[in-house]
Design brief:
This protein is α/β, with parallel strands linked by helices. 35% of the residues lie in helices and 24% in strands.
Amino acid sequence: MAKQKFYVVWEGHKPGVYASWDECKRQVDGVAGAKYKSFESRAEAEAAFKGNYWKFIKKAEGAPKTAASLSKSAIIRESVAVDAACSGNPGDMEYRGVWVPDGSQLFHMGPLEEGTNNIGEFLAIVHALAMLKQQGKPSLPIYSDSKTAQGWIKKGKCNTKLEATSRNKKIFELIQRAENWLAVNKVTNPILKWETEAWGEIPADFGRK
């Protein structure tokens, strides 16, 4: 028998603590940017409800990994996953984003000549951020399996060593556009690390390994 979980809804039709997923789902369905998360006990949920969702996510992200946090039940279902693929280094590069609940593709770019996987990962995250802002979903989590790209997002700069050429001009135009977006927009969506070893390949994976 599955252990009962408790759900905190920070932003939804009626914020509060709920004792079942069905109750939680009713509060968040149709709410753009709904904020919610599951907990192992009512006490944890009650304490979290009094706090700030964003601070909680950042705290959890930096916490030591435990068996519970690495189980698939820890994956935030209502989220976007991004990934990139590159044939060679540099090589033909592409990236995409998918809706985690059903794996449906939300966007895709490429292939583009003479790129790198890290650049693709960086562009994919920014693309997801811009898309979610436009859709009015500033709190929806984004999963990426690239620590490098996540570090570049924090710095607001694609710190690639790739040299610009006539063949990869389009890629560097996208990089400039992404950096410009980061310079004038505050990043509010949690950007979370996808734990590949524990959860398997990220849903946006191109399946070419």
